[in-house]
TrEMBL record:
Catalytic activity, reaction form: isopentenyl diphosphate = dimethylallyl diphosphate
EC number: 5.3.3.2
Record bears the keyword Isomerase: yes
UniProt-annotated location(s): Cytoplasm
Lineage, opening ranks: Bacteria, Bacillati, Bacillota, Bacilli, Lactobacillales
Summary of subunit composition and partner proteins: Homooctamer. Dimer of tetramers.
Xref: PANTHER family: ISOPENTENYL-DIPHOSPHATE DELTA-ISOMERASE (PTHR43665)
Entries under InterPro entries matching the protein: Aldolase_TIM, FMN-dep_DH, IPdP_isomerase
Entry keywords, A to Z: Cytoplasm, Flavoprotein, FMN, Isomerase, Isoprene biosynthesis, Magnesium, Metal-binding, NADP
Positions of FMN binding: 69-71, 99, 128, 189, 219, 287-288
Protein's recorded name: Isopentenyl-diphosphate delta-isomerase
Keyword flag Isomerase: yes
Length: 346
């Protein structure tokens, strides 16, 4: 029988697909189109010389994008995870699974996560839990999928938007303990509300392996939770809250932190990936867009989408005079007035 927790997983999948970048969602801050790439001097170059590899989490990622955490914990999600992992395996991408807390409580759900390791045996896989989980749970989640890294989500906005969500957030000391004791690199991540400079500085001081800024204008959990809450019992309106992904990346520059940044939130084209890398992200990841292609089209359509990105990336890097992903952070750029205004106010 499906549990409440499993039902929530299924509702997230269907609502995230149905309302992916819905016109009615509030737009929070400037998006990727607020950054333009300025042509630089000609260089002796060839597309074949470009290296798309990026170093993060103690590994070399062949591509600076991966499939971000979405699901697991229900029978519908087993199929989605299986399909995503097969596409990740065929395209050489890393992949994160959705929160594993349901499988820590109900062992019958473990399979919905393990299928990812089965289908992507050599892949770089990222486990996922909330920031309140003790180190024992973190280790169990890592072991469940033989993970290479773990993400801990700091999703205050999502929890408050959920009628049944947490209302106690004693996270900071626990994050410090988990980072100190985890057997694999730890990422701290937002899920779509972004991060400002003070939060980034605070999290960076905990010395995680990376911080995922998880900015707005992609999957919008405030809207998703509102649509799940059919009785509309939660009066919270979060529309003024949050930063877009590009704003969060500028906040990262301003904060001048040492932690490598991962950009997630509304990334749906290879151009968005390039812009995020120009703004200093070490790598990027996408959830909603990949899910949308998978669910409304097919696994082979998602594979094609990713191979298109893989073909375009070295060409775009050549255009921008970047031989490596790190070179992209030097590309001259122009900010639209609203983004420049944000930058000035920081
Ligand atoms: C259906 C769905 C379920 C998600 N579940 C999780 C989760 O369990 N844990 C987590 O850290 N993030 C979760 N996310 C958030 C994504 O990992 C990502 O941070 C967020 O969706 C922003 O990226 P996007 O705009 O590319 O979707 C989920 C996203 C979607 C679409």
């Amino acid at each position: 029988m499906a549990t409440t927790h499993s039902n929530r997983k299924n509702e997230h999948l269907s609502l995230a697909t149905k309302f992916w970048r819905d016109q009615e969602n509030p737009v929070i801050g400037p998006g990727f189109d607020a950054v333009r790439w300025v042509p630089g001097p000609l260089k002796n170059s060839a597309v074949a010389d470009v290296q798309t590899t990026t170093q993060i989490l103690g590994a070399d990622f062949t591509w600076p994008f991966y499939i971000e955490a979405m699901t697991g914990g229900s029978s519908a999600s087993t199929k989605v995870n299986a399909d995503l992992a097969t596409v990740a395996q065929k395209t050489g991408l890393a992949m994160a699974v959705g929160s594993q807390s349901v499988a820590l409580k109900d062992s019958s759900q473990v399979e919905s996560y393990r299928v990812v390791r089965q289908n992507h045996p050599e892949g770089f896989l990222i486990a996922n839990l909330g920031a309140d989980h003790p180190i024992q749970n973190v280790q169990a989640a890592i072991d469940m999928i033989d993970a290479n890294a773990i993400e801990l989500h700091v999703n205050l906005g999502q929890e408050l938007a959920m009628a049944e969500g947490d209302r106690r957030f004693y996270w900071i000391d626990n994050l410090a303990t988990v980072i100190a004791k985890s057997s694999v690199p730890v990422i701290i991540k937002e899920v779509g509300f972004g991060m400002g400079p003070d939060l980034l500085k605070q999290l960076s001081a905990l010395k995680p392996a990376a911080i995922n800024v998880g900015g707005a204008n992609g999957t919008n959990f405030a809207q998703i939770e509102q649509r799940r809450d059919r009785q509309n019992e939660n009066p919270l309106d979060l529309s003024p809250f949050g930063l877009s992904t590009v704003e969060s990346l500028l906040a990262g520059q301003k904060a001048a932190i040492n932690s490598p940044l991962i950009a997630t939130g509304g990334i749906q084209t290879i151009n968005d990936v390039v812009t995020a890398l120009i703004l200093g992200a070490k790598t990027t990841s996408s959830a909603g867009h990949f899910l949308q292609v998978l669910m409304t089209e097919s696994p082979s359509a998602l594979q094609k989408e990713i191979t298109n990105w893989q073909q375009a990336l070295p060409e775009l890097m050549t255009l921008l005079g970047a031989k490596t992903v790190a070179d992209l952070s030097q590309v001259p750029r122009l900010y639209r007035a609203d983004l420049q205004n944000f930058s000035d106010q920081l």
